[in-house]
Amino acid sequence: MSQKDRYAVIGNPIEHSKSPWIHAKFAEQTDELIQYGRILGPLDGFTREVKAFIASGGRGMNVTVPFKLEAYALADSLSPRAAAGAVNTLAFGPDGVCGDNTDGVGLVRDIEVNLGVSLKGARVLLLGAGGAARGVVLPIFDRAPAALTIVNRTAAKAHQLVDQFARDAAESGVRFSGGGADSVEAGQYDVIVNATAGSLDAALPEPDCEDTAFGAGTLAYDMMYGAQPTVFMQHAEKLGARAADGLGMLVEQAAESFFIWRGVRPDGGAVLRELRQMLAAKT
Ligand code: ATR
After folding, report:
1. CA–CA dist 87, 67 (Å, integer)
2. Rounded to two decimals, what is the model's pTM?
3. N or C terminus: which one in the chain shows less Cβ crowding within 10 Å?
4. Is the CB of 131 inside a 6 Å radius of any atom of ligand 1?
């Protein structure tokens, strides 16, 4: 029997990770021989665990909270997508440890392919300025929106991101600004992405985003997901917007990691539909 190549997701906590299920589906779909497990990384022992996995023949890893910055530091080489400072995908090969970040591409693919909303020429509002927000800025620029506004509870962190990516924005021809609540531009946005950790405590992101930013032509996208729509999604729907959770981003970032490792692109949409049905059946 052929030997299966080994992969794993590492995080803390990790028991609820859906990545092993998603990658098993991709392997089935593409006839790739892989085995994909989950590893609980000790908070003070991330590098040790990764090295042990490599030594035991591991070929690649997904990295989740709270290790994405440590994965960035550990990598011997980085893709341009990881240059924003966080790594969620490691590939182990003759050239050492290669770090990449597929989160942003996952978000963009979910919005454009699965939800059918083009970012080209769109006005986009990004709520939050932490690691999750930072990782999606460049992939959003790549889709040539007209404007990107970043709003954060702590305005200074949004200003930092605007400074960090100002040159990329200019090169992509994107109007780019940010700060606190008063940075929200007048009128409806086409896409509003919640990249704050607010949904974790079932709270609306602060500062309260202007209600006028939401409308019938708005896609309100929460990077979080759960069995029920998040508070942010419910708020957006009340204001007439279409709302989506981050389950599709989870599947699409996994699909991009699978492609990095195997050179084969799985069909994320099909796996997303199955995962969604499975979650609905559990409630
Ligand atoms: P992540 O890697 O998930 O982005 P992070 O880097 O800690 O995590 O960033 C969390 C983000 O969520 C930040 O933008 C944070 O705002 P602050 O910079 O003001 O701390 C935001 N955040 C967390 N809880 C929030 C809440 N209840 N309402 C609004 N924003 C919140």
Report:
1. 8
2. 0.95
3. N
4. yes
Reduce the DSSP state of residue 38 to 3 states and report it.
strand
Please say whether the dihedral angle defined by the alpha carbons of residues 58, 62, 68 and 72, taken in this order, is positive or negative: positive
Give the pLDDT band (50/70/90) at residue 197.
Answer: confident
CATH class of 5-101: alpha beta
**C-alpha 92, offset from chain centre:** 22
Q: Report the candidate in 62, 24, 33, 61 with the shortest Cα–Cα distance to residue 275.
A: 24
Q: Is the CB of 197 under 6 A from ligand 1?
A: yes
Of 5, 35, 36, give the one whose Cα is nearest residue 20. 36
Per-domain residue ranges for the chain?
5-101, 104-247
CA 128–ligand 1 middle distance (angstroms): 6
Q: What is the pLDDT of residue 226?
A: 86
Distance of CA 273 to the CA centre of its chain: 18
Atom of ligand 1 nearest to the CA of 86: 2
Structure tokens that stand for 21 in this block: 């299920």
List, by residue number, the catalytic residues. 68
- Ligand 1 pocket, residue 129 CB under 6 Å: yes
The CA 30 to ligand 1 mean position distance, Å, reads 37
Query: What pLDDT score was predicted for residue 204?
Result: 80
Given 3.40.50.300, 3.90.120.10, 1.20.1270.20, 3.40.50.720, which CATH number is that of 104-247? 3.40.50.720
